[in-house]
Amino acid sequence: MHIQLLLQMKISAFKSGKWVNQYQYKSFLPETINHAWTIDEDRMNLLLSQAALHLGELNAFSSLIPDVDIFIKMHVQKEAMNSSRIEGTRTSMEESLNKEENIDPEKRNDWQEVRNYVSAMNASVMSLNKLPLSGRLMKQTHKILMKGVRGEAKNPGEFRSSQNWIGGRSIKDAVFIPPHPHDLPDLISDLENFMNNNTLSVPELVKAGIAHYQFETIHPFLDGNGRVGRLLITLQLVSQGLLQKPTLYLSDYFEKNRSEYYSRLAKVRTDNDLNGWLMFFLEGVRQTSADSALTFRKIIELRKKTEKKLMKPKKASKSAFALHDFMYRMPVFEAQDVADDLGVNISTAYRMTEQFMKSGILEESTGFKRNRVFVFRSYIDLFR
């Protein structure tokens, strides 16, 4: 056992690190985190219990709802959109679900960034079956995120070998300078060990909050650190068994509270205020778990409502129910998609979509007679 595992640190006594002289600048060297922690803030224990309660409710929905993976896809889509939005990407939920050829050319780079995030999350969750939370998994995730988008020339899938910085036009006027590249191997190793250390008594939600702070402080990639770091939160909770399914995504909370998100992370480094960051983080888990559980309830209600509409004025056909199920898998689609999925001809697909539009279940978003795009808006709106 490493000697550091025998140490016990009160969260309120945390010292974030030190500034190290480099050539013409100072980089920040964070303290290692793979050791025992003690919660010494009563409010944190209360918030932790509330967050765990709502997380348990969310887990109950993920185990009770049939075909829950279909609905998780929309949660991932929303997470991708919000995480990318924090970095300046602007794509609506409807646009992110559309096909590339239906996206305005000037918006396609933003659209691709969101699509990459979805691909990275899906691939990373699958990889947890054979890979631990590790630098290797981080690199794999980063490589997918950066493919064909801004930052693709900045060593995708590789930890940086040069100094980066946050804010400012150059390193001389930077807001924050992460650790020097030669410090990365030890810091990443410490982070890996901490995330996978099952001998610690610290609650997993607190571990996830500490790990996110540490990753963002290390800033191991030249670009894309925010997106990888936020994605790792969900991966850590799934890996450690707190989530039965990847149903919790905090980017919406971080995006709505963007200024506080960044200031809370910064205050850990400047003021050693790890308690403040963790309280903010746990409140995000509490709110987001409750909101996600409510979304699942609304999905159940919407399914009942739309199925009821299908039964009027006469009993719906099997193909109508098949289209109904299809819409939850692909809420933005063209008639050809329906034809291909249901195995019907294109004229039948158009006739079915027209019936759904008359019933008020579907909308047509383009106004074109040809190449029409249909939108299951009442479903998409649940994730706004």
Provide key terms for this protein:
Arc Repressor Mutant, subunit A; 7 strands; Fic-like fold; three-stranded antiparallel β-sheet; globular; two-stranded parallel sheet; mainly alpha; 6% strand; 384 residues
Write the layout of secondary structure elements.
Elements: E1 8-10, E2 17-22, E3 25-30, E4 36-38, H1 42-64, H2 68-86, H3 93-97, H4 108-127, H5 135-145, H6 184-195, H7 204-218, H8 225-239, H9 251-256, H10 258-271, H11 274-310, H12 318-329, E5 332-333, H13 335-342, H14 346-358, E6 363-364, E7 374-375, H15 377-380
Parallel strand pairs: 1-4
Antiparallel strand pairs: 2-3, 5-7, 6-7
Helix pairs in contact: 1-11, 2-4, 4-5, 4-8, 5-8, 6-7, 7-8, 7-11, 10-11, 13-14
Describe the overall structure:
With 384 residues, this protein is mainly α. The chain folds into two domains: 3-295, Fic-like fold (Orthogonal Bundle), CATH 1.10.3290; 311-383, Orthogonal Bundle (Arc Repressor Mutant, subunit A), CATH 1.10.10. Helix content is 56%, strand content 6%. It has 15 helices and seven strands. The protein has helices spanning 42-64, 68-86, 93-97, 108-127, 135-145, 184-195, 204-218, 225-239, 251-256, 258-271, 274-310, 318-329, 335-342, 346-358, 377-380; strands spanning 8-10, 17-22, 25-30, 36-38, 332-333, 363-364, 374-375. A three-stranded antiparallel beta sheet has the order 5-7-6. The chain has a two-stranded parallel ribbon with strand order 1-4. A hairpin with a 2-residue loop joins strand 2 (17-22) and strand 3. Helix 4 runs antiparallel to helix 5 and helix 4 (108-127) packs parallel to helix 8 (225-239). The radius of gyration is 23 Å and the shape is globular. The N and C termini lie far apart (47 Å). The model is unreliable at 1-6 (pLDDT under 50).
